[in-house]
From TrEMBL:
Domain of life: Bacteria
One of the Pfam families matching this protein, by short name: Hydrolase_4
Keyword Hydrolase: yes
Record's keyword terms, sorted: Hydrolase
Organism: Actinotalea soli
Protein name per UniProt: Alpha/beta fold hydrolase
Length: 271
């Protein structure tokens, strides 16, 4: 395991964790160099969801372990303004730059065959990003079309008033890092609704696996699943939508199933 720092073109330092793929006993590995002597030059790059961090309440940790066992190195990082990365306003355009910078870092380390595994808003970021090194994307609970987010469940009336009057406000960060709050803007809210699905999905250059929970009582996941069904025909050949029956948006209790489905699909669509 190696803790790394990645500086984006706009000058924000991102904090991440790079882990080499699992190797057989007696084979040396140096994660700081980004590769091992025996592992193929493949890596999974994680993109966490809205107001989360690289661990995503443990979801990323479990997924990364499964990917490493299958021969992928893994890079999980905090978007700017999250976790241990430097301060930044949480906006999709910023996170697109962050993800592209992380992909470039992986490529410089020898990993030019990359898979992006992203969740929720991180999936929207992944769909907007344009890294030439990404061969496939696995997206859970993806924002793949315009969504009316229930902001009243995130922001108090006072915070909404501050956002309206100043254009920015903060929300508490209850994650494991030392960060106490995250900054959002009016653009943050617009990022969820101002999505031209045909334009967004029509420019994707690699196959995409969309994994969604199927719990009928999950008000958050249902509109996301609906958008995925509408948008699937717009994605490249090899793309697929799979529904995890009974699963909720976070899929925290379905990590093993998500990993198994992702790895089986990747065997089909990537060399």
């Amino acid at each position: 395991m190696a803790e790394i720092r990645i500086t984006t073109p706009r000058g924000v330092a991102l904090s991440g964790t790079l882990d080499a793929a699992e190797v057989s006993a007696g084979t040396s590995a140096d994660p700081a160099e980004g590769r091992t002597a025996t592992a193929p030059a493949r890596a999974v790059l994680f993109a966490h969801g809205f107001l989360a961090d690289r661990s995503s309440r443990g979801r990323t940790d479990g997924l990364a372990k499964a990917y490493r066992a299958a021969g992928y190195a893994t890079l999980a990082f905090d978007f700017g303004g999250h976790g241990d990365s430097e301060d930044d306003v949480v906006e999709v355009s910023h996170e697109v730059e962050d993800l592209e910078a992380a992909s470039t870092h992986l490529a410089a380390a020898g990993y030019t065959h990359q898979v992006v595994h992203a969740h929720s808003m991180g999936a929207l970021v992944a769909l907007r990003a344009g890294s030439p090194h990404v061969r496939a994307m696995v997206l859970t609970g993806a924002v793949s079309g315009p969504i009316e987010h229930p902001w009243e469940e995130v922001l108090s009336p006072a915070k909404m008033a501050e956002l309206t009057s100043t254009g920015r406000t903060t929300v508490l960060d209850d994650g494991p890092s030392g960060r106490e709050e995250l900054e959002i803007s009016e653009q943050t809210l617009a990022d969820f609704t101002e999505v031209d699905q045909a334009e967004l999905l029509g420019t994707v250059a690699c196959p995409v696996l969309l994994l969604h929970g199927g719990a009928l009582v999950d008000g958050e996941e249902h509109p996301l699943l609906t958008q995925a069904r509408i948008g699937l025909p717009l994605l490249p050949e090899g793309s697929r939508l799979e529904v995890l029956s009974g699963g909720e948006h976070a899929l925290l209790d379905r990590t093993e199933e998500v990993a198994a489905r992702a790895l089986a699909w990747l065997e089909e669509v990537t060399p």
